[in-house]
Amino acid sequence: MTDTVAAEGVGDATLDIPANPPRRALGLHRELSRVWSNDRGWRGQVTAVNHTTLGLRFMATALVFFAIGGVLAMLIRAQLATRQGAFLDTELYNQIFTMHGSIMMFLFAIPMLEGLGIYLLPKLLGTRDMAFPRLTALGYWCYLFGGLILLAALAAGVAPRDGWFMYTPLSSAEFSPGINADVWLLGVTFVEISALAAAVEITVTILRQRAPGMRLTQMPLFAWYMLGTAAMMLVGFPPLILASVLLEVERAFDWPFFDVARGGDPLLWQHLFWMFGHPEVYIIFLPAAGAISTILPALCRTSILGYGGIVAAILALVFLSFGLWVHHMFAIGIPHLALTFFSAASLAVAVPTAVQVFAWIGTMWKGRPELALPMLYILGFFLTFVMGGLTGVMLAVIPFNWQAHDTAFVTAHLHYVLIGGFVFPMLAAAAWWMPQITGRARIRGLGEVAFWVILIGFHGTFFVMHLTGLLGMPRRIDVYPDNPEWEVLNLTSSVFGFVMAIGLALFALDLVLQATMGQRAGRNPWRAPTLDWAMSLPAPTFNFASLPGPRQVAEAAPDRTALALARGEGLLPGAPRGQRELLVTTAADARPDHVAVLPGNTALPLVLSASIGAFVLLMLAGLYALAPVALVAVAALAWRWHRGLATLAAGGAMVAVAPRLALPVQPGRGRSLTHSGGVALLVADGTLFAALIFGVAFLHVVAPGWPPPPAAAETATGAVLLVALAVGLGVAALAAHVTEARQPAGRSLAGWAVLGLAGNGAALLALALLAGWVMDDPTAHARDALRGVLAGYVGLHALICALMAAFVLDQIRRGEVPTSGAPSGWRLWQDFATATGLVAVAVVLGTAAVA
Amino acid sequence: MTWLPRALIGPGLWAVGFALVYGLHGLGCALGWSTQEVAGMTLHRLAMVAAWVGTLLACVVVVMWLPGGPDPTRRLPRIGAWIGLGATIFTLLPLLVATSC
Questions:
Q1: Which of A216, A217, A337, A349 to mutate to test the interface with B (most CBs of B within 10 A)?
Q2: Nearest 5°: CA angle at A416, between A163 and A332?
Q3: Which among A233, A303, A769, A771 counts the fewest CB atoms within 10 Å?
Q4: Which of B83, B91, B92 sits opposite A312 (nearest CB)?
Q5: What is the mean pLDDT of the segment spanning A285-301?
Q6: What is the pLDDT of residues B7-26, one digit of tens each?
Q7: Are A523 and A547 in a shared domain?
Q8: Residue A12 has pLDDT above 50, yes or no
Q9: What is the predicted pLDDT for the residue at A29?
C-alpha cells in the first residue's frame, strides 16, 4: 500500500526522485550482463534481440548493400562513359540501374537510418532497450531475407528491370513477363515490414521510454528528428505497400487495377508510389539532419541555436512533405490548378529546410568550430545539400520541370539531395560515433584523405551531370550514338564516379583500421553533452547499470553521470529479479509510469520472418495455392509470440525503482507499451485503408472506362449480406468492449469472448458468401477488383480479430486474463476492424448508388 | 488535451484542407462543375474557395485559442498553428489565379 501511494505521488509532485545508494559497479555490471547479454556462440547470432547488437547489425548490413549498390553504379558509369558502350547489354543495364536505385533506397538508406535509430535512441533517451526487442529482430531478419531475395534475383539474371519506381504499364504482366517485377514487388514489400516495425518501436520508445524528467520539449533533437521520421514512415510506407499488393495481384490474378481497358489507370500507381516516394526523401533526410544537430553543437563547443525553431521546422517538414508528391508527375497532363497547388507546396517546403540550415550556420557562428573529421563531412553536407535543395526549387517550378523532366538533370539533383543530405551526414555520424561503438580512437590522416577524395569525386560526377541533363540526355538510356555532345560530360562523370568510389573505399578502410587497431578511446572523447556517452565504451548490452533520473538529465554532464549510473545511483539499478526491466514514462512530460519487463533472447523472430519469407517465395514461384500454408505458420507463430507476452505480464508486483518510489509491473488500461505500439501500427493500417479508399475514388472519378456494367452485388442478396457483415463486426466490437471493461472478473468473460469469436466468424461467413455467390468476376473490371480488395481487407481484419478473441478465450482458460493486456489489444483492433468494415460497406453501397 | 495533439493540430488542419481542396478539384473536373456559374464564379471554384476559407478560419481560431509565451511547451503548439495557417494560405493561393480544369 505504501508502495502504491509512493508511485501515485510521482505523478503529482515535481520530479524530485531521490538517488539510490551507491553500490559496487563491477557487481552491478555482472548482474546485468547475465540478464541482458546475447547467447554465446552461433546461437547468439540468431537469438539476439538486443538493440545494440541489432542496431549495429542493421548498419553493417546496410553498408554491405551500399557497397553492392555502389558497384552497380560503377557498372552504369562504365557503360555510359562512351557513346556506344558495349560493356552491358540493354537487358542487363536495365536490371542494374533498377537494382542500383532499389538497393540504395530500400536496402541501404532506410535500414541505415533504422539501424542508427535503433542503436542510438535508447542510449540518448536513457533507457536499456527499444520498446519491442523481438520486433527489432523480426525487422532485421525480414530486411536481410528480403534483400537476399533481390540479390539472388540479380545473380540469377531475373532482377527487376523497370526502374526503381516500377511504373505501370511497363511493369504490368503484358510488358514485363517473367518474375522480375514480382521480385521487386514481393521483395521490397518484405523489406518494408522491417521499416514499419522500426517505425512502430521508434515511435513508442521515444514517446514512452525517455528518462524521467526528459520532457518532449527538452529531449535531444536527434530524438525529435527520429520521431518525425517514424511518424512519416507509419504514414508514408502504407501507400507503397498497397500499390505493390495491387500490382502483384494484377500480375498474379489479372485483377485490372492499372489496366485502362478494364477501368484501371496507370496513374493510380504513380499517385500511390509518390505518396510514399516524396516523403521518402524526407524520411531519409531527417535522421541525417538529426545527426548533424547532435554533432555540430558539440564540435562548436556550444548549444544548438534555435531548438524550438528546429522542432517547428521538423513539424512543418513532416506534414508539408506529404503535399508534394504530384511534383513527380508534372508531365502527365494534370490540370494547371492542381499543378500549382503542388508547385506551391514544393516551394513552401524549402522554408523549414532553410530554417534548419540557418540554425546550423548560426550555431557555428556563435561557437568555436573544431575542424575534426565529422565537421568536414558536415561542411561537405552544407555545400552539397544546399545545391541539391536549390535545384529542387528549380524543379518545383512547373515550366522548368517540363524542360528538365526525365533528364540527367533530375538524376544529378536527386544524387545531390540524397548523397548530400544523407550520405555525407552518415559519414559524419560514423566518424562521430565510432568511438562509442568500438571503444577505440581513430587513426588520424586516412579519414581526411578519404573525405577530400569523396567530395571531389562526388561533385566531379554529378555537377557535370546537370549539364548533361540540360543538353537533353534522358535518364535510363544505355547508349547515345547520335549525341556526341554528351560524351565528354559522361566520360567526366564516369572518371569522377570511380574517384568517389575510391574515396568511399578509403573511408571503409579507415573504419576497419579504427575498429581493429585504434587506441582505446576515453569515455567521452568529443566532450558531448548527451547521455549516449554516459556509459562505458563500447556500450554494454544494457547501456546503463542504473537509469538516469531527472537530475542526470538536467545536468547534461555525461562524464559525471556515467560514474553515478555505473554505481547504481540512478533508477532501477541492476537486475535483481533476473529480468530485463526498464522504466516506462508518460508521453509528454516523462513522469515514471510503470516498469516494463522485456522478453529475452529468442529465435522466434528468425522463425517468423522465415515463415513470411516462405510465403514470399511461394508467391514468386507461382505456387499460389500453397502460399496460405505459410500464412498459417505465421499465425501460429504470432500466437506463440503473444503467449510470451502474457507470461511476462503475469505477476503484477510493485518494483522498487528508487527510495520511496515503487512502480507496478502491470500498467493501467491503455498505458502499456504494447497498447502504444498497437495504436502506432493501426495508424499505418488506417493509412493503408485510406490509400485504398483514395484508389476507389480516383478510379471512379478519373479513370477512363467508367461507369462499368451493372454489378450483381447491387442485388438485394448482396445488400443483406453486407448488413450481416456489419452486424457481425458490430457484435464483435460490443463483446470486445465488455471483455475489456470487465477484465478483472476473469473467467466469467468466456461468454463474451465466444460472442466476439462468433461475430467475427459471422462477418467472415458473410464475406465468403458475397465472394462466392454475389460479387462479379474481379478480373472483369476495376470496380469489381476494388470490391474484391475491400472484401479481402475487411476479411483479413475480421480473421485477425477472431484469432485475438480466441486468444483471449485461451487466456481466460489459463486464468491469465486479470493481469493480461490481451483484452485491451483485442478491443483496439476490433474497433478498428469494425470501423473500417463499416466504411468499406458504405463505400460499396455509396459507389453503387452513384453508378 | 495532451501536448502532442495540440502541437499537431495546426499542420493537421493544413493537411485536411489541402486534401479536401485537391479532392474537390478532381471531383469538380469530373462532374463538370467548372461550367456551372454561381455567384459570379464557377461552382467548382466556389466549392474549393469555400473549403479553403473554412480551413483558414479554423487555422485562425486555433492560433487565437492556443496560448503563447516564452515557455517552449506553450510556444511550440502555437508555432505549429502558425505553420498550418501560413501553409494553408500559400499552398492554396493559386485558387485565386489559375484555371481549374
A1: A337
A2: 45
A3: A303
A4: B83
A5: 96
A6: 999 999 999 999 999 999 99
A7: no
A8: no
A9: 94
Q: Is the CB of A315 less than 8 angstroms away from the CB of B95?
A: no
For residue A850 the three cell numbers come to: 452513384
Does B6 lie at the interface with A, CB-CB under 8 angstroms?
A: no
A552 and A525 assigned to the same domain: no
Q: Do A588 and B14 touch (CB under 8 A)?
A: no
Q: Are residues A547 and A406 in the same domain?
A: no
Tell me the pairing of strands A592-598 and B37-38.
Answer: unpaired
How do the domains of chain B map onto residue ranges? 7-96
Residues A507 and A556 in one domain: no
Give the chain A residue nearest B75 (alpha carbons): A308
Taking the Cβ of residue B16 and every Cβ of chain A, the question of whether any pair is shorter than 8 Å is answered with no
Q: Is residue A585 part of a domain?
A: no
> Which residues form the domain of A546?
542-571
Please report, in angstroms and rounded to a whole number, the separation of the first and last CA atoms in chain B: 41
**Residues paired with residue B37 on neighbouring β-strands, in sequence order:** B42
Please report whether residue A255 resides in a domain.
no
Q: Give yes or no for residue A247 having a pLDDT over 80.
A: yes
Please report residues of A whose CB lies closer than 8 A to that of B94.
337, 340-341, 343-344
Res A650: pLDDT = 56
From the number of C-beta atoms within 10 Å of its C-beta (0-12, 13-18, 19+), residue A306 rates as middle
Decide if A762 is inside a domain. yes
CA angle, A261 then A267 then A269, to 5°: 100
Q: How many contacts, defined by CB atoms under 8 Å, are there between A and B?
A: 99
A268-277, A410-419, A814-823: which range is least confident on average?
A814-823
Residues of A in contact with B35 (CB under 8 A): none
Chain B residues within 8 A of A213 when measuring between CB atoms:
none
Instruction: Tell me chain B's radius of gyration from C-alpha atoms.
Output: 16
Same structural domain for residues A467 and A565? no
Average pLDDT over residues A677-695: 97
Residue A345 to residue B91, Cβ atoms within 8 A: yes
- Report ipTM (2 d.p.): 0.95
Residues in contact with A35: Cβ distance below 8 Å, sequence separation at least 6, in sequence order: A542, A575, A578, A579, A580, A600
> pLDDT tens for residues A573-585?
999 989 999 999 9
pLDDT band at residue A14 using 50, 70 and 90 as cut-offs: low
A730 and A842, same domain (yes or no): yes
Last residue of a domain, one of A499, A530, A561: A530
Q: Where is the domain boundary, A530, A558, A593?
A: A530
Please give the residue of chain B at the shortest CA–CA distance from A307. Answer: B72
Closest-approach residue (CA) in chain B for A314: B80
Tell me if B76 and A312 make a contact (CB, 8 A cut-off): yes
Contact A336 B99 (CB under 8 A): yes
- Asked whether residue A406 falls in the same domain as residue A453, the answer is yes
Residue A754 lies in a domain: yes
Give the pLDDT confidence of A342-395 residue by residue, as tens digits: 999 999 999 999 999 999 999 999 999 999 999 999 999 999 999 999 999 899
Residue A322: how many other CB atoms lie within 10 Å: 22
Distance CA(A240)–CA(A233), nearest Å, equals 11
Quick one: cell of A292? 548533424
Total of domains in chain A: 3
Which DSSP string do the residues of A14-34 spell out, in sequence order?
Answer: -S-PPPPPP--HHHHHHHHHH
Q: Are residues A442 and A549 in the same domain?
A: no
Whose grid coordinates read 480473421?
A799
pLDDT at A262 over 60: yes
- Cβ pair B80:A312 closer than 8 A: yes
